[in-house]
Amino acid sequence: MSSILTNNSAMVALQTLKSINGDLSKTQAMISTGKEVGSAKDNAAVWAISKVMESDVKGFKAISESLSLGSSSVAVARNGAETVTNLLTDMKEKIVAAQGENVDRSKLQDDIKALTDQIASVVGAAQFNGLNLLKGTASVNVLSSLDRASDGTVTSSNITVARQDLSFDAGSYGTGADLSTNVTTTLGGNLAADGTGDAFSNGANKLAATVAGTITAGETYNFQIAGETVSFTTTTPNANDLANGLTAAINAAGIEGITADVNAAVITINSTSKFEDVIVNTTGNGGATFALQANGVTAAASTTNTQTINARASELTFSTTAGVNEGDGYRATIGGVNYDYIAGPGETFEDVARGLKTVIDGAGLANVETNVKQDATTGAWTLQIDNAGTALTLTEAGAAGGKATGGLVGLDKMDVTTGRGVTAALSNIETLINTTIDAAAAFGSSQGRIETQSDFISKLTDSLKSGIGALVDADMEEASARLQALQVQQQLGVQSLSIANQAPQTILSLFR
């Protein structure tokens, strides 16, 4: 049936042409924008995913800039620490030269002062964009990543860079929890501290050897003291003569820090060894015996006997069970004057002992010398303090909540114009060099991690961009071919619609 009111063919042709024009418009948009999904109406789910990933890409761009800034800041600090290490090595050369007695120590002291000033300048200038990692103890966080969980939650990640304080700052002693139980004092090598300000042993520690037993002329007896052996062969069967002969042999041997006195058949060995215990052994080929008494302990009479004379220095021995926290301060009060060291982050009792040694040495006390040792059995770290002059008192204390002492404390107080100062400087410069080496190594490790993360972020960003492209980018080869096809379809559609529109004209022939 034909109708002049309803042209079904034209309607079909028109709908087909509209569909073709819609596809053509979409294809032309793909070609002009390069995107298959250019808006939410194209594909809401894909568009939403792509926008989330695009926001992450922008975030990672900011992270890349943060990593670059962090890497530069750490690089400046590392270079500063390495420079300070080199300057301290130069200073060590001056200190070693000052060990000689026929050198101009005042000139060497001037050189050391100049190097110290240069180190202070380097530490002060080692900043990037106002951030100096060579001062203070607060760590610095460098933004390193954005982590998106499966539920869409986003959290940031950081690379923590620990400051390495290379200042001369003395810090400040805290008023927090009492830490005095973490350090014990032994005075003069023999006496236990009672907390009331006991005096150093500034004389000699003694060992009494009582000679007894059956003695026959022609017998040989030996005393081995601090590894050196002295001998005496009896000429009479008399204990007093044997004691006199051994005393004379000990004094004639010239053992450093060792002298001997005799009273009847009792030999008194005097030791002024500051930091080393002195071991005394007796042997013989006869019947004489030696009862050895030292440090309040008596070894029973025997021909073959052993006893130890404790080192003269007083000792601050630190705990092997307690830990060290930032701000923990330990104090040695010598002659009523306080000497403090306050720990920084990550330090140990070895650091505390060495730091306190440096502080005491820097005070330039005329007759006080220090040494740090570790017990081979317990692992405990001990600061030994020896006083060879006027009697001084020594007490210890500890308190939390302080401000950390700088890593190069005492450097500006090194004095090589005196023999005692030269000895202390040679010991302390090694500690300070190790401090700066550790600081440079820590910065190097942090810088390497930051650069690795920066490289990863760059590659991750490229991967995200590639993923976004796979989701939303148009296949241009396909789009080009489709455009050609749709243009042909459009021309055919127009012709079909034209033919359909001409169909009602044939009805006119029925009325002719």
Task: Write a brief caption for the model.
The chain is α+β, with helices and mostly antiparallel strands. It folds into four domains: 8-33 and 474-511; 46-162 and 435-465, f41 fragment of flagellin, N-terminal domain (Up-down Bundle), CATH 1.20.1330.10; 180-199 and 314-405, no CATH class; 205-309, Immunoglobulin-like, CATH 2.60.40. The chain has seven helices and 21 strands.
Describe the fold and architecture.
With 512 residues, the chain is an alpha+beta fold. The protein folds into four domains: 8-33 and 474-511; 46-162 and 435-465, f41 fragment of flagellin, N-terminal domain (Up-down Bundle); 180-199 and 314-405, no CATH class; 205-309, Immunoglobulin-like, CATH 2.60.40. The protein has seven helices and 21 strands. It has helices spanning 8-33, 44-97, 105-125, 239-253, 349-362, 419-472, 476-502, and strands spanning 127-128, 131-132, 140-148, 154-161, 183-187, 191-192, 205-214, 220-225, 228-233, 258-263, 266-271, 278-284, 287-294, 297-302, 305-309, 314-318, 329-334, 337-342, 368-374, 381-387, 394-399. The strands form six sheets. It has a five-stranded antiparallel beta sheet. Strands 10-11-7-13-14 form a five-stranded antiparallel beta sheet, covered by helices on one side. A four-stranded antiparallel beta sheet has the order 9-8-12-15. Helix 1 runs antiparallel to helix 7 (476-502) and helix 2 (44-97) packs antiparallel against helix 3. It is rod-shaped. It starts with 7 loop residues before the first helix and ends in a 10-residue tail after the last helix.
